[in-house]
Amino acid sequence: MSVQHTPAPARSDVRRPAGVGRSAPARPFFKRGMLLTVGAVAWGVDSLIFGTDPDGQLEEALSSITGGMFQIGLMGLLTVLYATKALGEGGLARFFLRLEGVILVFAMGSTLADGIGVSDFDKLGWVLLDICWPLSMLGMFFIGIRVAIAGRWTGKDRYWPLIAESWGPICVPTFAIFGSTVAGVVSFVHLCVGYGVLGQLVARKQR
Length: 207
What we know:
It contains seven helices and no strands. Helices cover about 70% and strands about 0% of the residues. It is globular and about 50 Å long. By secondary structure, it is mainly alpha-helical. Keywords: Membrane, Transmembrane, Transmembrane helix.
């Protein structure tokens, strides 16, 4: 008498445990970091060529395109800050990042309106929309301070956001004192060294 051992058929209804066979990407924020770098450098080059106060329809359109690329990069940065709880784990930190995101969306609307030439600064609504652009940059500066204080990001990651996000406090007074051309040079250097490098740090960030 022979005994045959027939293997039990594989069950198709048994799910593999979550995470089995799949590994988390080594650099989960790579695309967002690269987008921030590209946007910062593009807007910086535009500032270097045309200054920080573009004149004429073509200059305004190019400034809006490059500025919009930079703003999209900033939005990506906000999502990384939120995902990594860079400002802390409390509800206030999450609220502030959401608020900054809302202000940035309105700032992007202002950039688009300027680019297509529909802004009308004789009307209060357009003025308020335009104010969202500097407000968003001021908000990023406070975010940089908070990232440094919270200390959840370590090494260069901890302090470089503050360096990058000091663009407003540095470039705006430069424009007021020295004018558009000088401010454009300062803006170019600051954007490349600040946000350009920050984008690379974010791209290399593993968690």
